[in-house]
Amino acid sequence: MTESDSSLDWKTRAAQRKQAQLDSIPSEWILHDLRLESENVMDVPEKCGLLSARELEITNTTDVEVILKKLSNSEWSSVDVTRAFYKRAIIAQQLTNCLTEIFVERALDRAKELDDILRRTGKVVGPLHGLPVSLKDQFTMKGLETIMGYVAWIGRYAKSDCVLVEMLYDCGAVPFVRTNVPQTLMWGETYNHVFGRTSNPYNRRLTAGGSSGGEGALVAMKGSPLGVGTDIGGSLRIPSAFCGLYTLRPSYERLPYYGATNALEGQESISSVLGPMTNSITGLKIFVKAIIDSQPWKRDPLVVRKEWSEKEYQLAFHGGGSPLCFAIMWDNGVVKPHPPLRRAMVMTKGALEAAGHRVIDWEPHRHLEIYKNSETIFVADGGEDYRTECERSGEPLIKSMISEDDGHEPIVEKPFVNHLVGESYHRSAYQLWELHKEKRQLRKSHLDYWEATVHRTGTGRPVDGIISPAVAYPAVPHGLNTDSFYTTLCNAMDYTTSVFPVTSVDTELDHPHDPHEFYNYEDEAVYKLYDSGLFQGCPVGLQLIGRTQEEEAVIRMTEIIDTALKENKRINTETDTK
Amino acid sequence: MTESDSSLDWKTRAAQRKQAQLDSIPSEWILHDLRLESENVMDVPEKCGLLSARELEITNTTDVEVILKKLSNSEWSSVDVTRAFYKRAIIAQQLTNCLTEIFVERALDRAKELDDILRRTGKVVGPLHGLPVSLKDQFTMKGLETIMGYVAWIGRYAKSDCVLVEMLYDCGAVPFVRTNVPQTLMWGETYNHVFGRTSNPYNRRLTAGGSSGGEGALVAMKGSPLGVGTDIGGSLRIPSAFCGLYTLRPSYERLPYYGATNALEGQESISSVLGPMTNSITGLKIFVKAIIDSQPWKRDPLVVRKEWSEKEYQLAFHGGGSPLCFAIMWDNGVVKPHPPLRRAMVMTKGALEAAGHRVIDWEPHRHLEIYKNSETIFVADGGEDYRTECERSGEPLIKSMISEDDGHEPIVEKPFVNHLVGESYHRSAYQLWELHKEKRQLRKSHLDYWEATVHRTGTGRPVDGIISPAVAYPAVPHGLNTDSFYTTLCNAMDYTTSVFPVTSVDTELDHPHDPHEFYNYEDEAVYKLYDSGLFQGCPVGLQLIGRTQEEEAVIRMTEIIDTALKENKRINTETDTK
C-alpha cells in the first residue's frame, strides 16, 4: 500500500489495507475451525491449542513487576515473552478485531537485540527491559503507517518515532503491536472504515468501549501485558471499565504526547493525555515512573518539568495515607448508575472502611455546566477537523457506532450531549476565549468546593480522592454507549484519575432499581437499558479522582483501594467456605 | 466615584478619577516648589526633605532579605517601614506618575496588625512578615477599584482579593499601593486615559517601559522594595531593563494569576505570568519561594503542583553549578542591539569567565517565525477584546504612546510587527488550533536545537542558560519603544527568564557602531535612534533565559551572574584606584 493508491475509491483502499493486515499475520497463528460456545471469548486463548503451556504461563502472568523480574534475571527471554504475547494478541485479533499494525518480525528483532545486550553486558537497557508494550494507533513508529481510523491516512509512513516510542525504546521496552480506534477518536466505542469494529471479549455483542477500545479488548484477553492509550473525555477509562482493566488518566502534559497523531490537533483547551492500560496494578506505577524518570521534558516541550516524587507517592500530602478519607459520588445527577455499579461502590466503601479508612458522600457540583463547557470546546471548530480528514479520501463521516446487522436502534434519538451543546458551528477565537474564561471559573469553583470538604472529613484535610463510576453502566451493545458524563469531568478539571476493576455483573445480586425521577431523557433511556441477562459476567470498574498533577498520589491510593478490595474478597471467600 | 457615573462622558469620568487619586495623597506628602535640576529625578527623594534620616535609611535598604530580617527581629516595625516606603512612593508618583490606587490608611492598619501579632506572639505571620509590596493594577484587592487602564472600569470595586493577594496576606506582606499600566496592557510602555503616562525616573523624557511600567518607575525610585508585575510579551522585563531592576518571568502557571484582571482574558495559548520586580537580587528567591511554599495550587486550579525544589535551586540538573556554560545571543537577527547592550554582554562574559564559567555564542533559531506566531495569536480575536472594553465608556483605543507635546514622530511609520502579522481579523477556533500546531512544532524545534548544544559546551550538558538583551536599547523617548523581539521568544517558548542590571550607559565607552546590513526597516530605524546623549546614564540590563519551569535554577544562575558582575566591578574599581 503506497500513497499513490489515493486515486482509488475509499472502499477499495480500505479493503486492500484490511487484506494487507490479514496477510501480515503468520499463517501458523490463524485460528481454524473455531467453534465458539458463546460470545464470551475470554477462554479461547486457553482452549484453542495455539499457545504452548509455557506461552500460557507467560501470558497468564499479568503482574508487570513479575514479568520484568523474570526478564531481568533471564528466567524468560524477551523473544519468548514477546512471541507468546504476540500469538495471544493475534488470537485476540481474530476474536475481537482489536489490532491495526502487525509487525511480528520487527518486534522479535527488537526483543532479540535486548536479549543479546543483557547476555553480553549483564545489564538491562532500562526499567522496562524486554517488556512487550502495545500502542494505540496514534503512537507513530518510524517506517510504519499511522492510519488512526482514516482511509486517507493509509500509506502515511512515519518518518520518525513519536517521543513516547523513543522513550519506550530507551526504557528497554518492545513496542510490538498497534491497536484499533474509532474514526475521529471522539467516540466511546471503536469502529472505523479501515479496520472495522472492536468487540468486547466478555461478550462480543457488546462494545469494548473507546476510543482506546483496541487496547481494552487486547489487554483484557492478555494479548498484551501493558498498552498505552489516550484520553480526552474518557478514552482510557471507558474501555478500561468495560474490559476490567486498570488505567491512569494523568494530568495534561505530564507524559509526552509530542509526535503522536491526534484528532482536533492544536485544540489545547482540554488536552488529550496518554496513559497505561493493564491487568496489573503494579503496571501503573512502573510505566508512569519509567517515563517520568526518563525526563520527557527534554524531548517534549510541553511536558511539565516535575520529577517522579516518591514523597508524593508516599502520600505526604495525604497524611501519609493512614487513614485516608474518600468520598463516593454515587450518582452525578445526570445519569444514574446501573445496579452493578452501585454494588461496586458499596463493596469499595466496605473494603475501605474495613481497612480503617473513612468514606463520606460526594454531592456533584455544577457537573452539567462543566460537561457542557467541555463538549462545546470540542466542537468549537464546527467539525472542520473531521470533515477535512474525511474529505481527503471521500469516506463519509461516521454518524453512529451501530452497524446494520446489529438489529437494534440507538437508545435515544439524539444524544443528550447534542441536545445540550446545540448545532456545532465555527466559533471565533474570541468565542473560544469566552469558553476558556468560563472553564477557568468552573475549575476554581470545583476546587474551592473540594477544599471546603476539609470540614467534613475528620482528617484535617479535604477529601483525599473521589470514587465514582467511570461510566453509568457495564459495557453496552455496540452503538449504545452515550455516557461520558462521569469521565469528562476529570478532563475538564484536569483531575488525575485512575480506573480499577471491582467485580463483575451478577444477576443474582444486581436486581434492577425501581425507577427514579429521571434527570433527562437519556437518563431514562439508560435506566431502561438495564437488563441483567445482557450484562451478566461483564467487568465492573470504578474511577478514583485525585487532584491535578497528583499522578503519584492517585497511583498509591489506587493500590490502597485495590489491596483493600482484594483483602475483603479473601475474607468473604474464607467466610463463604467455612 | 460610583458605577452610576457611567452616564458621564469618558473624559469627565477619567478626570474625576484622576482628581480622586490626587485627593487620596496625604497633604503633608505633597512636594511643593520643586525645582528640578534635570529630568533625572533619581536623587529627589534624598534631597526633597520629605523623608527623615530614618526613612531614608529604611528605603535605601534595597536588600529584601535585610529588610525582612530587621522586621522579624523588631529592629524595624512594619508601620515604620510601610510609612517610609509609602512616602517615597508618593514622591515617586509626583515625579513619574507611577501609581494608580493609593490607600495609605488601609496599608498602615495592616502593618500595625502585623506589628501587634509579632509583639503579642513573638512569631512572624509568614516569610514576608511586614514587607510592603506594590502591585500592578491588575491584582484585585477587596473593596478597591481595579481600573487597569480602562475608563469603563472606573467604579469597579473588587468583591474579593485575587489569589496572589490572599497569599501575600498569608505570607505576612503588606500590599500597599497599586501601579500604572497602559490601556489594553499590550504595550511596552505605560499610558492610559485615566491615570496618564508613567515616565522613567532616570530621564523623564524617556519611557519607563511597560506594561508593568508603574512598577518599574516606582521600584527604581525605591518607592517599594518589591513589586509584582506581569508579562505576556516582555511586560516584566522591558520596564525592569529600562529601570535597572531585577525580575523573573516564571513559566506559565507556576505562580497564581487567578482572580487578577487581564487583557485578552481567556487567551490561553500564551499565558500572561506574574513575577517580582525589585532592586534586590535576594528578592527574587524570597518572593517566588514564599508564594510556592504557600501551595498556590490549592487556590488557583491552573497552578502547576510543583513544590519549591531546593535540589533544582542547587543546580542539580546543571552539574551543581561549577562550571556552568552560558551562551550569549549577541544579536537576534531581527534588531541589532545598541552599543551599551553589547558592552553589557561583553562585561557579563568577562565576569563569568573570570568566575570560572564557560561562555559560548548562541545563534538565533527561527526567531522571526516564533515571534510572528505569537503576535498572530495575540490578535486572533481581531481586536474584539480591546474594542469591547473601550466601547463600554466611549474612550478611543490608544494607537500610539506618543503624546502631542512630545515633539517627535514614531521611528517607523508602521511597526514591523504589524507588517509581519498583517491586518488583524476574527480568526476561527480552527485557525487558532492551526496556530497552536505551528507553535508546538516551533517549541519542539527550539528545544531540540538547545539540546544539541551539548556537543559545544564541554560540560556534558546543553547550554545552561542563554544571555541576551531584553530589549535592543536602553529606555527610549516616549512612544518609540517598538522592540519585543527579544522578550517574546521566551513567552512563546515558555522559557523561565530573569532580567538583571549590568551597567549604565556611558557615552565615553558606548560609541555608535558602524551601520550594518539592516535586517529590516525597523532595525534600521533602531540603529539611527542611537544617540549617546539621549541615553546617558540610563540603566542597562540583560536577560537570562532558562528552560520551562526552571524557576529555581534560573534564580540561582542569576545570583551567580550577579555575584560575578559585582566581583568583577570590585576588582576593576580596585585596579582603577591603584
UniProtKB/TrEMBL annotation, chains A, B:
Name used for this protein in its record: amidase
Keyword Chaperone: no
Keyword annotations from UniProtKB, A to Z: Hydrolase
Domain Amidase: 80-554
GO function terms (MF aspect): amidase activity
Binding site for substrate: 185, 211, 232-235
Main EC class the enzyme belongs to: hydrolase
Family: Belongs to the amidase family.
Record's catalysed reaction(s): a monocarboxylic acid amide + H2O = a monocarboxylate + NH4(+)
